[in-house]
Amino acid sequence: MKYRLDRLLTELVPELSRKQAKDAIRAGRVTIDGVRTNDPERKTDPEAEVVALEGRPLAYAQFRYFLLNKPAGVLSATRDKKQKTVLDLISGIDKEKYFPVGRLDIDTEGLLLITNDGALSHELLSPKKHVEKEYIAVCRGILTDDTVAPLRTGVDLGDFTTAPAKVKLLCADATAQTTELSLAITEGKFHQVKRMVAAVGSEVLHLRRIRMGGMSLPQDLKEGEYRELSAEDLRKFREIIGGNE
Q1: What is the sign of the dihedral through the CA atoms of 70, 211, 228 and 62?
Q2: Residue 23 annotated to the active site
Q3: Among residues 152, 153, 113, which one has the least CA distance to residue 240?
Q4: Pick the residue with more confidence: 154 or 214?
Q5: pLDDT value of position 241
Q6: Which one of 23, 39, 88, 105 is the catalytic residue?
Q7: In 3D, which of 186, 184, 183, 185 has the Cα closest to residue 127?
């Protein structure tokens, strides 16, 4: 597949803006198969041709994966005219090609995968794969094992009955009258966690996703920050969905 050279250069060297990429090309600092080019709009196939910046060959990866700690107030969408989206938090990518894997509500925080790999996204979201998503929820009221017991067997939400969830009561705050719990599900329906908690007579006050499959949210990754996944990270994802490296 061929790409415009200036656009490709910004993906290969994320710290370069589009203007800086064009300037580098026009200044003769970029070569294709050893031949200098001054045309930012030239089409090139990075899988068949070697693109180099100042003599340094640039590695090309067809697919890239970013693990984002999504903050509240940001949309899990590719674009929006009024509000910031999760793609606006990732620098050095062509936003026309990337997308979030699944969605988190605008007020939900935590782990979100951003990629341009449609096949992996489909595998992770496929109901047949049963990829587990774990959330930490702060709920209204003091909940007990008896309160949350229906979640472990499945609850009728009207339009569907949930699959059994893994639920752990973590702590309760008698002063604030809240309970923190861990909830792991293999489905991903609209507002599902909030609806499940409502079905047992409580309300989610704060929600954060901390795990998806074999990938957990790093403790040192602050809200709004992201990192590009390593080969080991990808192995964990693919292990869960039955894929291969």
Answers
A1: negative
A2: no
A3: 113
A4: 154
A5: 60
A6: 105
A7: 186
**Residue 217 exposure: Cα atoms within 13 Å on the Cβ side:** 24
Domains, the chain, in order of start with CATH, read 3-57 (3.10.290.10), 65-127+215-241 (3.30.70.580), 132-212 (3.30.70.1560)
Nearest alpha-carbon partner for 49 in 64, 65, 30: 30
Give the separation between CA 204 and CA 117, rounded to whole angstroms. Answer: 32
Give me the pLDDT at residue 244, please: 40
Average pLDDT over residues 196-218: 95
Dump pLDDT digits (tens) for 120-144: 888 888 888 888 999 999 999 999 9
Residue 52 pLDDT > 80: yes
Kindly indicate the confidence band of residue 240, based on its pLDDT and cuts at 50, 70 and 90. Answer: low
How many whole angstroms separate alpha carbon 160 and alpha carbon 157?
Answer: 6
Neighbours of 97 (CB within 10 A): 15
Q: State residue 237 phi and psi, 5-degree precision.
A: -60, -50
Q: Which amino acid is at 66?
A: F
Alpha carbons 114 and 19: distance in angstroms, whole number: 24
Chain Cα centroid distance, residue 226: 9
Determine how β-strand 51-53 pairs with β-strand 133-140.
Answer: unpaired
pLDDT bucket at 32, cuts 50 / 70 / 90: very high
Distance CA 216, CA 97 (A): 25
Give which of 141, 124, 136 is closest to 183, Cα–Cα. Answer: 136
The two tokens of residue 168 are 């752990």
